[in-house]
Amino acid sequence: MPIATPARKISFRETQIEMAHGAGGKASRRLVEGLFAPLLFGSSPGPLGDAAHIQINGTQIAMTTDSFVVKPLRFPGGSIGELAINGTVNDLAVSGAKAEAVVVTFVLEAGLPTDILEAEVRAMGQAAEKAGVRIAGGDTKVVEHGKADSMYITTTGIGRLLSGVEISPQAVRPGDKVLLSGPIGDHGITILLARGDLDLEADLRSDTRSVLPLVQGLVCEAGAGVRWMRDPTRGGVATSLNELARDCGLGIVLFEEKIPVRDSVRGACELLGLDPLHIANEGQFLAIVSADHAEAALRALRATPGGEEAHAIGEVREQPESAVLVTTLYGGSRIVDMLVGDPLPRIC
Amino acid sequence: MKFVDEFRAPELIAKTGEEIRRLADPNRHYRIMEVCGGHTHAIYRFGLKDLLPSNVELIHGPGCPVCVLPMGRIDDGLSLAAQPDFIFAAFGDMMRVPGTHGSPLEYKARGMDVRIVYSPADALKLARSNPEKHVMFFAIGFETTAPSTALTLVRAKAEGLRNFSVFCNHVTIIPAIRAILDSPDMRLDGFVGPGHVSTVIGCRPYDWIAKDERKPVVVSGFEPLDILQSIVMLLRQLRKGEAKVENQYKRVVPWEGNRAALRAMAEVFELRPYFEWRGLGFISQSALKIRAAYAEWDSEQRFIVPGVRVTDPKAAQCGEVLKGVLKPSQCKLFGRECTPEQPVGALMVSSEGSCAAYYNYEHRKPVTIANAATN
């Protein structure tokens, strides 16, 4: 494997790491682009996708890794173990690859009850079986009580590239359509409510699932038209699309009334002053598809079980340059930026 | 969603927009101030400016409690909370507001016990369940949130809960409006009046604006249709040469306000002789102080407060933006030194601040894109 000569110039100037650096928004990007990329990948890392594509003896594989830190460990619709498998399977899927094998690292806090660990390991096994991915190995570390929040899980996966699809932000063109696989915000709002600080209840479940079947359905019917995909996890749809807008230099225009949001998510967001576009998802993905393939793509998504609520939510335009604009039903519009840090409720 | 969707109905909004264009005299420039940060946020979030003719200008007022809080108060609050066995509790709104050495969220990441609460009563609950710790509620807000702080203090006293106190930063809206109207470079035609504040204080306290200053006030709700309808009501008054206080938000705001809430505030609070407002300077009788009868639950009377004063950098033109003399983007620091991630001035701090709202929703919007909702 060719090893890049590291360029030692870093542009990250912040004196210490803050929570925002891990929240998936602008601060995370500054850290990755300003410190990790120049020291580890050479001076120009190119667009930072969900998975790296590597060539080994002429075979292209995709590789990715993700750490899972979530509180509470279990929540309606899922748990940390399920997220850890689905998250990595999904990162590979949206980079155009089918997950083949995953290795797992557990960081456990001394004092963690075994039954809690057992439940999560079982959840991982089931999620892996459902997603059709093999768990090929793992590692365990235990840290002192108080040094970790019950457990952290890291999963690293490799996948085989799906044929008939090539994705890159540079392939995106004005006129392309933005497709979304289903309603947004379910996961983030479920977690917010499951933390129990709010005296709010809603009939809501995390959307954690493998999006691979949907991606396969899409690629099978409209692969030649698929330009770019991303699963909008932390930072939500707004952050993913802002990253794309920045990488391709074009404008993404969304039609607010087309964006599927469940009433309970909308209600919670209205109450708490949050924007559903900034809320995390764990079982949805975005695809940019050329205009001529868009209809077939949407049909394929909707025909795949779990994709019934897919929508075309917007399109790519020349303007606004490198930004995301949302237009409302009555002719108003607003820019939607990346999230700065975690979404916080507004009260006063 | 009930009580939301009816106020976002596209055909009604389009009609109201037409009505505004019909009422606005093309030979006249209208400067209307929306006092409340919630309105500012809604105006940007729904892109309402795109629906207004160019001679109807909205000026963003001082009604964002986070924005007008001087940095020194945050420093004071955080330095108290640095004592051992302290819990710093505040609304989510406060968490990212920077003090000299970081925001409450950054202090939390460094190990301070900082909790987000959704009401002062939640902070009281924290005190009950953590008897070995002292819970300090960092209270902010106008008359909207002051009554719940007052009731919480009444309850704390009744229960004799000694490990709870309030660091009070409550402010009142009327003196701020007066300060803005008294400013010599101020030219306003009318006010979109605060909605939530008025649920507590009612509509009477605005009478002087109509009678003495001859400017119309329309107390308004927060949905797109509410705000546009309030602008229609203001334009109608201006056309007839009237200056009255009107209530567009009747479904929530009683004309007389909420007597029980006002009673609770009177029981617990008195006016401070003066208080510093970020961007506006010292304004007399503009903030609330906890009465001596509740001294034991007043963080400022119970502990020694450093009394930090931090002045905003001279280059920041927050005062001018607050008064509507400058647009956010006309400030020298806007978008360069001063961004929502690293705010220098007050108005960039909260998403309800006019600079942050402008930065987040507006400033990269090309003119050609406005009204491009074709699909």
Plain-language structure description:
- The complex is a heterodimer of chains A (348) and B (375).
- Chain A has 348 residues and is of the alpha+beta class.
- Chain A contains 8 helices and 14 strands.
- Chain A folds into 2 domains: 53-161, 60s Ribosomal Protein L30, Chain: A, CATH 3.30.1330.10; 169-335, Phosphoribosyl-aminoimidazole Synthetase, Chain A, domain 2 (Alpha-Beta Complex).
- In chain A, strand 13 and strand 14 (333-335) form a beta hairpin.
- In chain A, helix 2 runs parallel beside helix 3 and helix 5 (212-222) packs across helix 8 (291-303).
- The mean pLDDT of chain A is 91.
- With 375 residues, chain B is an alpha/beta fold.
- Chain B folds into 2 domains: 5-66 and 174-247, 3-Layer(aba) Sandwich (Rossmann fold), CATH 3.40.50.11750; 71-172 and 257-302, HypD, alpha/beta domain 2 (Rossmann fold), CATH 3.40.50.
- Chain B is 34% helix and 17% strand.
- Chain B is globular.
- The interface between A and B is large, with 45 and 58 residues.
Characteristic key phrases:
heterodimer, A: about 350 residues, alpha+beta, 60s Ribosomal Protein L30, Chain: A, Phosphoribosyl-aminoimidazole Synthetase, Chain A, domain 2, 7-stranded mixed sheet, globular, B: about 375 residues, alpha/beta, Rossmann fold, 4-stranded parallel sheet, 13 strands
How is the largest sheet of chain B built, in terms of strand order? 2-1-7-8-9
Which residue ranges of chain A are poorly predicted, with pLDDT under 50 across at least 5 consecutive positions?
Answer: none
CATH architecture call of the largest domain in chain B: 3-Layer(aba) Sandwich
Determine the CATH topology of the largest domain in chain B: Rossmann fold
For the termini of chain B, the CA-CA separation is 24 Å
Number of DSSP-assigned strands of chain B: 13
Largest sheet of chain A: 7 strands, mixed
CATH fold description of the largest domain in chain A:
Phosphoribosyl-aminoimidazole Synthetase, Chain A, domain 2
Q: Briefly, what CATH class of the largest domain in chain B?
A: Alpha Beta
For the record, what is the CATH homologous superfamily label of the largest domain in chain B? HypD, alpha/beta domain 2
Order of helices and strands of chain A: HEEEEHEHEEEHHEHEHEHEEE
The counted number of beta strands of chain A is 14
